[in-house]
Structures are given as C-alpha cells and as structure tokens.
Amino acid sequence: MSYLGINTKQYLSKNEKIGELLTFLDGSKWQVNPIDKMKTALWLPSKEIIVSIEGTQYLLTNIKKKETVNAKYLSKKST
C-alpha cells in the first residue's frame, strides 16, 4: 500500500503514544521510527507537515520546526 499525498501539505490531526502514532486530517495514519519519537512527541495538532519519499522510506517534515522524521505509512481512512 502506498501513500498518494507525496509532496503535498498535510495537517496533523492527532499525536498519540507520545509521538509514536500520527494521524493527518486526510485520514492517513503513520508510525514514527522509534529513534525520531523524541521530535514528534512535541508536534501539535494543526501543524503543517510535508510527506515525501526517499527510496522506499517515507519522510514527514514539520514545516515550522524544520524537523524531518522517518515514518511507516499504516493506512488511510475512507472519507
């Protein structure tokens, strides 16, 4: 399963398990690499995130903080 919103601006909807699980307003769910959880633990809902891909790895970048983390795309809820 691949994510179709590459290089588009998304908005953080939920930050769960102290930065481990992120959900965007488009319904997509992401599991953050454990090494990067310290960064995402402080990401707040409504922040703008850009999703990109490098090889086979998804990258999530918090635009305001200029922080990039590795994440696994889990699913997208149908709207």
Tell me what you see in this structure.
With 79 residues, the protein is mostly beta strands. The protein has one domain. Helix content is 5%, strand content 51%. It is built from one helix and six strands. A six-stranded antiparallel β-barrel has the order 1-2-3-6-5-4. A hairpin with a 3-residue loop joins strand 2 and strand 3 (28-32). The longest helix is centred in the middle third of the chain and has 4 residues, at 37-40. The chain starts with 8 loop residues before the first strand and ends with a strand.
Strand order of the largest sheet: 1-2-3-6-5-4
Give, in order, the helices and strands: EEEHEEE
Taking the alpha carbons of the first and last residues, their distance comes to 17 Å
Strand percent estimate: over 45%
Note poorly predicted spans. none
Structural class: mainly beta
Short structural summary:
This protein has 79 residues and is mainly beta. The protein has one helix and six strands.
Secondary structure topology:
Layout: E1 9-16, E2 21-24, E3 28-32, H1 37-40, E4 48-54, E5 57-62, E6 67-76
Antiparallel strand pairs: 1-2, 1-4, 2-3, 3-6, 4-5, 5-6
